[in-house]
Amino acid sequence: MALTLCDVGPRDGLQNESEVLEPLVRADLVNRLAAAGLPRVEAVSFVRDDRVPQMARAEDVVAAIERLDGTEYSGLVLNEQGYERFAAAGLDRVNVTLGATEEFNRHNGNATLAEAIERVERILAAASEPATVTISVAFGCPFEGRVDPGRVAELAGRFEGAEVVLADTIGVAVPHEVRGLVSRTRVAGFHGHNTRNTGYANALAALEAGASVLDASVGGLGGCPYAPRATGNIATEDLAYLLEGEGVKTGVDLDALIATSTWLEGVLGRRLEGQLYRAGTWPAT
Q: What is the pLDDT of residues 172-192, one digit of tens each?
């Protein structure tokens, strides 16, 4: 089974930063990740500029991307208006997201759970591009606490025609929970955060349970705006090092990924959450 490693840094990573980067800088990040051999890069989200200024001018970012064969470029949408912008921009894959709980959907998408489900179904019906459905807070919610696995399984089952990814948005899951829910739902992917230092073990558990898509973020960028203590995603280069050591081929150039994190550290002016870009590969190359 082939593994798709998706870097969500340009979207999920940068949207949680206090600094707003110019579209050309964000496109440069996308280009560096593609050049490092990432099979999929989530480049932008098509949301209101006033609500998420870090993602403003998504179309300008897309226009500045230097497309490479072998990399699939995706964009995230929350509603039909976002999908219309996505379709006009011409990216390869649409990522539609909703939360597993009522309160998270109200805070993140200004909708009830039922309304969010209907939005996703309408977008999937309209989309001509390959589609991913990401179910946020699949393991724990900052507003409702623990999430019933049965609820998540029922929700995942509604989107059989799409690639479904379960997200541990606030980083509360542990491996047996991830292994159990991925196995039960037979979803394609897992999106993990390393808030409580379980993210990498959870990614391996998802892989063991049959997942073929793993999300990660260059340098470990990211978080959740609605859970202030939910620190970043698992770092793409750290995960790739782990997977390669376990005999799982990722197809990425680790040295190029490390160089990208080092560059990004300079852009943001702070140390990133990832560790490999500071420690280096071993044996040293």
A: 999 999 999 999 999 999 999
